[in-house]
Amino acid sequence: MVFGGTTEGKQTARFLDKQGAAYLYSTKTETEPFFMRCGEYRFGALDEHQMASLFRVRNVTVVINAAHPFASLLHKTLANVCLRLSLPVIRFERTYDIPEEAAHSNKVHYVNGFPEAIGLLRALRPQRVLAVTGVQTVGALRPYWSEHEMKIRILPSGQSVVAAHQQDFPPDDLILLKPSGLLEEERQIIRAYGIDCLLVKESGTSGFLPVKIKAAMTCDIPVVVVKRPRLPGSFITITSETELNREMDRIGQVYHAER
Asked: Which in 61, 95, 139, 250 has the greatest CB count within 10 A?
């Protein structure tokens, strides 16, 4: 069972296809299809009962959690269900390196959660904030954007736009753009919209975190980074296909020994 919707999720799918291993690839919302030789696709959030039932019906023997680092509810649900069913969870984790100069900069601020981020933004008192934290954070940021000027960048999909509108976010303050990971593009957006503070999530290298931070620093504006949630201690954390292959082999040996 693979929980994806990310770069790491697709990387896992390609790995399993090469191994000839049957898998079910799951995302919270429907995503663009991609080729899977050995996989099946499903989407939709699962509560603990639904997840446990699916695992039993599909005879799941190992779970690979390659979902977004901020998918806190999924991580918690997975931990609870898999501990109860004695299923191993391999967490395909991202790397979280940032530019070396950013680690010592007084313009890069790490905070624990969005309430703390809002408090810091109020203290910094920027004229116009750009939040590149995704449409699912519109509600969490309401206490700020309802009183201060804020642009929020979201994916240019009808689903994302509808979700923002349902939260009553001003349409004129939406920036519809799929990030490319290019430094110059990030800098152009900051300059074009007169941004003087950037709000980001600690989304790792595959979430273009280093590029976003570098763009803010080269434009000489502060950046507020919301720290990623802590993962459950029961997860087996890996960061590469080599480590994934090693853990799959180890789990397979244990599984067959127990049989």
From this structure: 139
